[in-house]
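Hey, does this match?
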Amino acid sequence: MWQCNSEIARAVTLLPQRIVQRGQRLFNAGEALESIDIITAGAFKITQSTAEGDEWISRFKFIGEWIGLSDYPGEQHSVSAYALDTSAVRRLPLPMLAKMLRDEETRPTILAMMNHNLRQHLNYAVMRRMRARDRLAEFLHQMSGHYARQGYSARSFHLPMSRNEMANYLDLTPETVSRELKTFERTGSIRTRRNEITLVDVNSLLNP
């Protein structure tokens, strides 16, 4: 989403890039917040620890999204981030972010990204209250929208996360995710091939 402002786009291309391999940690909860990570390739899962010490996936982040804004202007990361596949980020130092927030030309884009993060939190809270089938359908619909915004097919796309990670994020069991995906296939709403998804009938998917 940073591409919508040419000045920010130029600045980002000059930032140091970090390649993060699949499963590698980008940062851990409790580490000092020194920069904002702008995803230029791949995808990440954002995790928190439950009271029992289990991993809870609270968000997935994709190309064009910024990781770390939710903790700004704090001093530490409150979450951890791991690459879902080979990914890349450009690291925006906090002093540069503060300068962009003071600049009338770049401030609207930064504020839009902050609002985007807030909407993600609110949408996630609403989705977790849905029935299991509706929860999964809405997730697939959101993934379709993500790929469409990036200029890719909204109908056929790849899910970079595993079924277990998807289930964790949706607060479902892996068995429930597999069962509901099979139901969507049986009713002609989708086709699946491993992590490749084709939306055949979006209306029937969202309105069973």
User: Anything to note?
Assistant: Helices lie at 6-13, 94-102, 107-127, 132-149, 163-170, 174-186, 202-206. The CA atoms of residues 13 and 109 lie 16 Å apart. The longest strand covers residues 55-62. The radius of gyration is 18 Å.
